[in-house]
Amino acid sequence: MISVSLLSAYLYCKRKLFLEQVLGIHEGPKKAPLIGRIRHRIYEEINNTEQDIVTSITEKHTSSDILQLYRTSYARIIRVVLGHYKYAIKMVNLLSSELFKEIWPTMLREAELRAKNVYDFIKKSKIFGKELWQELTPKIKSELKLASKNLGLVGKIDLSLIHISEPTRPLYISYAVFCLK
Length: 181
What we know:
- The protein is an alpha+beta fold.
- Helices cover 59% and strands 17% of the residues.
């Protein structure tokens, strides 16, 4: 099976792909791709922890409280991910603190959007905790892996939105590939 990323790399630069995949010669980390990997990892962690945030919400939480839950969680996730990449960050002459300042406004907007979605859903449904998580729609999943034996391809979808429709509650998934800029 061939990775979609390898096809993309081939279209971008055949020589570079040959050097890396055949000869095993790799360049050191570069700033833009490293920041891209960091952002992807942050989004993946955010999506993996949303259930914990939503299930912790009770009837006592205000919209401001819910936003604060998201902000606190996102700030922690960014710090952990930056710590995971600290050596690569140093290799491209960046500072983790500067990277945090660059990434934080986007994550803050994401926190605001998700907190508003949850709060609006609560106002409409009047449910909390685990029941809120079960009913909340859409749910966001990152890095969904797909493979096609017919095409001989494997790849990942950056973002999938899982919706539960009413009244019979069928499940449908919409996919989007997006740039994390």
